[in-house]
Amino acid sequence: MKIDPNKPASYKDYEVSPTIRITLSRKKQDADEDRFTSVINALKKDRILKHGNMIVENISTNGVPLEDDEWHKKF
């Protein structure tokens, strides 16, 4: 694959999905999934993104993961 990050047009020939990665310095909260889903819905509604991936990781203040796996959703 020859995608050149300095030439955005080079992406048009490939199926690439934008990825939003969020790292939070706290434990997962019960309402997090609803919050992240709301962000995704707003991005789609406002036509900022048609599709993509969102990944959320919870870490301690010293950078150690607090959960066994990250939250992720493809949209």
Give your account of this protein's structure.
The chain has one helix at 32-45, and strands spanning 19-24, 53-58, 71-74. With 75 residues, the protein is of the alpha+beta class. It has a domain at 25-74. A 3-stranded mixed sheet has the order 1-2-3, covered by helices on one side.
Work out the radius of gyration: 15 Å
| Beta strands, count | 3
Shape: globular
Number of helices: 1
Encode the helix/strand succession as letters. Answer: EHEE
Unreliable residue stretches? none
Q: Between the first and last Cα atoms, what is the distance in angstroms?
A: 23 Å
Give a short summary of the structure:
With 75 residues, this protein is of the alpha+beta class. Helix content is 19%, strand content 21%. The chain has a domain at 25-74.
